[in-house]
Amino acid sequence: xxxxxxxxxxxxxxxxxxxxxxxxxxxxxxxxxxxxxxxxxxxxxxxxxxxxxxxxxxxxxxxxxxxxxxxxxxxxxxxxxxxxxxxxxxxxxxxxxxxxxxxxxxxxxxxxxxxxxxxxxxxxxxxxxxxxxxxxxxxxxxxxxxxxxxxxxxxxxxxxxxxxxxxxxxxxxxxxxxxxxxxxxxxxxxxxxxxxxxxxxxxxxxxxxxxxxxxxxxxxxxxxxxxxxxxxxxxxxxxxxxxxxxxxxxxxxxxxxxxxxxxxxxxxxxxxxxxxxxxxxxxxxxxxxxxxxxxxxxxxxxxxxxxxxxxxxxxxxxxxxxxxxxxxxxxxxxxxxxxxxxxxxxxxxxxxxxxxxxxxxxxxxxxxxxxxxxxxxxxxxxxxxxxxxxxxxxxxxxxxxxxxxxxxxxxxxxxxxxxxxxxxxxxxxxxxxxxxxxxxxxxxxxxxxxxxxxxxxxxxxxxxxxxxxxxxxxxxxxxxxxxxxxxxxxxxxxxxxxxxxxxxxxxxxxxxxxxxxxxxxxxxxxxxxxxxxxxxxxxxxxxxxxxxxxxxxxxxxxxxxxxxxxxxxxxxxxxxxxxxxxxxxxxxxxxxxxxxxxxxxxxxxxxxxxxxxxxxxxxxxxxxxxxxxxxxxxxxxxxxxxxxxxxxxxxxxxxxxxxxxxxxxxxxxxxxxxxxxxxxxxxxxxxxxxxxxxxxxxxxxxxxxxxxxxxxxxxxxxxxxxxxxxxxxxxxxxxxxxxxxxxxxxxxxxxxxxxxxxxxxxxxxxxxxxxxxxxxxxxxxxxxxxxxxxxxxxxxxxxxxxxxxxxxxxxxxxxxxxxxxxxxxxxxxxxxxxxxxxxxxxxxxxxxxxxxxxxxxxxxxxxxxxxxxxxxxxxxxxxxxxxxxxxxxxxxxxxxxxxxxxxxxxxxxxxxxxxxxxxxxxxxxxxxxxxxx
Length: 933
What we know:
This protein is mostly helical. It has 44 helices and 8 strands. Strands 2-3-4-1-5 form a 5-stranded parallel β-sheet, with helices on both faces. A 3-stranded antiparallel β-sheet has the order 6-8-7. A hairpin with a 2-residue loop joins β7 (462-464) and β8 (467-469).
């Protein structure tokens, strides 16, 4: 308490002595911080080093600013004090928020975690180091000179030089790049090129402090700043004056500077070189001067610049500064914003920022100052992205300021309005502008290639494979202008015409997905924009394009789409054949088919139900019945057999009443009804239904439905134990004239591997699964890919090779982390639990089965819910918990009865989810032989 009291008194006294308002503000805030610590903080002793740093800051500030010579104080002091004020304001805000919370909760005291305190101490150390190392000596010399005016005796004629900046304290993921640049500086001048905020200046400062650079250039390392001057203010004289001031050359003559540079090895860094390259006057003379400097054998020059332009006669190595890698970006973010939350949220945020260093730093500071949780930060980010990246006036606190420096440069202005339009379109299209499409997207801009090339040279765009695109922060800034109602809307006329025409062509004449796979995100963005602004006049055209897009996506690049909410918000109209109702129904149906293909079962059911309702209103009963049929197959998948049967009966009745029941429809309903009957255990009835369906599909050469029917016929024989017949049905699918897609082939190999397992041919099953694994090309759905590995997991577990099973599971979970959905996660968790059960790690198995049960409950998948609950009963029995076993088995029976699945058909299909014969508790329970205690 005594130490705190003394430190507060010292701060208050120093505050009265210093002449600078910013210095008074810093000391006042530090005094406020220590007062809160004294009055409120429980863990005062943890703040001991913070108190010490506050005292040192007070002494340094007083020593360097008092005496009344405010006009002589170097502006660099004000700059550092301004940064320090912003930082300590953040600490004060955090502590006062805790103090207020303590008052609200009527607590006497609170505490701050030691990790936060350590970070505050580290930052205060950094400011002290900058203050003392960079500025104190300079200020002392200035004050001495002022106080000893008229006295030159004993004074050195050595001019004042700008010391090189210190290495940035927060510097992540750039070590390899720094070494590359250092190596290049041994033989060439270097230009670091990149957009604003990418970290060029920080890299240059780090290079200036590399051991080999210090040893080579000693105190002749100079950092000439052009970041606080506008290009319109730059003349040849201001350019030379800035260099002379940095070097400490008293004459602002080119000859004096050249003599100084020739006197010994010099590393000369021109920071923000684009400023003088766009100089209002004297740009040619500036370029000539740089060439003259660079021609000296003693001079090595490094530029940081947003454009790739260098003097013609200067040999330079151009090094592009990339964004941070994911790991370095995470380190940079968490260095400022400390959290124990789910790292996936952080990775998503950083990816949205394209790992842009300045954006990461700004967002981390915003999150820390607002004391947001990761979830709160994500919600804020999704709702107000550009505002979160503009928290101050300077270019280090505002992304807008940084980007506008580039957009307002004379180089951009010379390109005219066309350049702004190109940037707006590039910002709108997330995959950028395909090089071969430029003339189609901008038919009225004859010099489009020249404009795009210039924008790339100015680091506002960059080439990514065959497309020109932007970093996400630049895209966000440019796009934000069109979110305001008073800003004219973006002109997408030519973009829309080209994309809609191309979409119609590839939908009619399939290009095997080559176009859609490279333009899908652009199309999705355009369609979402158009759908949200659709008028009754153009609704039909836009929705037709939307259905074509979703269909192409399903065939060639199956993934979820963001179009669902905007489609469901479309107006419906109130009469049959209304354009809005008709179009919305088609779009909802297309989305349902996509969700079905992606095995998003619950979503597909909801979308089919929406489409069915709209089709009924639109009096398109054939499609309404088809939605019921497809919904029934999804309910069969979930194990809700009774619901599936009812829906199929309803579809049949609807078709009969509307006189739209064709032989094709009847065969398809027989196929789906056969699937339901199989799960009920009514195998003979199933065989009749499937045989009838197969006969029709063979007669009309419907190979798609014929293949599906043969697959289910094989499943019936597999469940019946008739493995020879099952093999025959599965192998016959390979012989179909148009068989089959790679995904179909993978599934057929999986089915045949199950037959081999049932017949005891384990080595043959392994070969089939290895062949399937080798055939995975990356174009299949994540569900198909995971199932190949899951069957390998099951086979390894059955053979007792639990480590091999864990290896396959690790591969699955890595894949799911990047691309997975809830269904795949639930299945992978189930098979992981099954593996641990077989390995007799009952605690881990119980935890995993419980987790899988939660996932399947969220998915409404009753089939696997029964399997998980039954497995939990087996674990309880193995642990002699008879009461728990009976409870779990009773729950499993209740769920199974609700599904309508025959007890013999829970485990003997093509999904290898069965437990071992030694897990006999379920059978004992059903027979009434399981003891109760």
